[in-house]
Amino acid sequence: MRFWATIRLAIRALRRNKLRSILTMLGIIIGVGSVIAAVSITTGATKQVEDKVASLGQNVITVFSGNFTSGAMRGGWGSAPTLTVDDSDAIAQLPNVAAVSPEERDRDQVLANGLNWNTLILGESPDYTQIRNWNMASGAMFSDQDVRSIAKVAVLGQTVVDQLFPGENPVGQTIRVRDIPFKIVGVLEPKGFNLFGQDQDDTVIIPYTSHMKRVDYRTFVNSIQVEAATAKSISTVQQEINSLLAGRHRSIEPDFTVRTQLELAQAMTATSKVMSVLLAAIASVSLIVGGIGIMNIMLVSVTERTREIGIRMAVGARARDILIQFLVEAVTLSAFGGLIGIALGMIASQIVSSATGWPTLTPFVWIGIASVSSAVVGIISGFYPAWKASQLDPIDALRYE
């Protein structure tokens, strides 16, 4: 009973100086609000990157021609065409490989319906839509038989449909690529832009054999898209591909590069995570400043209420009761400031999202961290003033003017 009476007394003391209490909480409010807003914005950005990586497909491994990291003559993607369809077939035989698609790519002008459009021409296998987790909006993906027969068939992305067949269903109609007619057998569902700002829907997909033997007359492929059977097997499949191709190509330095979707996601989210930690660290400075402000005000309060403390002690209050009273005042200031800061931080992140179009996401764990942090700041900053008040001599306190 004595404990709750002490708490009520502490809250009553805070209410006597409302303006001072609010100003004291301001540092905590700004600190917690800044942390919540910063974390919400950076977490939303990280989630957006992860969603865009996921839109590239599930458990995807990409094998590129050329070596990014070794050799005297270093090159990027496709700098030295070294991959073949036979490499792709060999990879397809590996355990834990669910799907494989040799990939040819070029940009070219396509014509249809009296219109023309410059777009990305992809040569793929029928497994491409499975690897990319890409559904059909209408029609169907071409078949293995179309690949074997070097068929002149095509699947269009939505952007190409909008440019060449506005308001029409293009399935069954014909487009021309380098004056070669291709029958449209399907249209892909819209995917939007990828991580690199490229429109994924601005594409025409044809069998890789048709691309190699009818469009570009190549014997090598630019890359090979691979889907691991499970997320846990990605690293294993990556190692097996490296070993397989190293044995097949027998070059002094690897003339290929194997990258996983996980590596891409980690690379793309690394900056967001660093920014999240940096912004949270900067915002945490406000929490420290707020804690110093609470300690300062509580010390002033102890000095102002010295006579009150003496009277309480004279009528039976123990040192522990005085300690609890002032500690509760400090924790109450900090806790209320933290709650207000959380609410204002979430509101601020939503305002930023509405104004800029950036996605925001407030993790519940950070709300908990902010709440606990504000309470801890209150305990730490309030303990010394509370202890100082509890150690006052009742006689001296009663004499204090």
Characterization of the model:
The protein has about 400 residues and is of the alpha+beta class. The chain folds into two domains: about 1-50 and about 270-400, no CATH class; about 100-225, no CATH class. Helix content is about 55%, strand content about 15%. The protein is built from 13 helices and ten strands. It has helices at about 1-15, 20-55, 85-90, 130, 145-150, 160-165, 210-215, 235-250, 260-305, 305-315, 320-355, 365-390, 395-400; strands at about 60-65, 95-110, 115-125, 135-140, 155, 175, 180-190, 205, 225-230, 255-260. It has a six-stranded mixed beta barrel with strand order 2-3-8-5-7-6. A hairpin with a 2-residue loop joins strand 2 and strand 3 (about 115-125). Helix 1 (about 1-15) packs across helix 11 (about 320-355), helix 2 crosses helix 11 and helix 11 packs antiparallel against helix 12 (about 365-390). About 40% of the residues are buried.
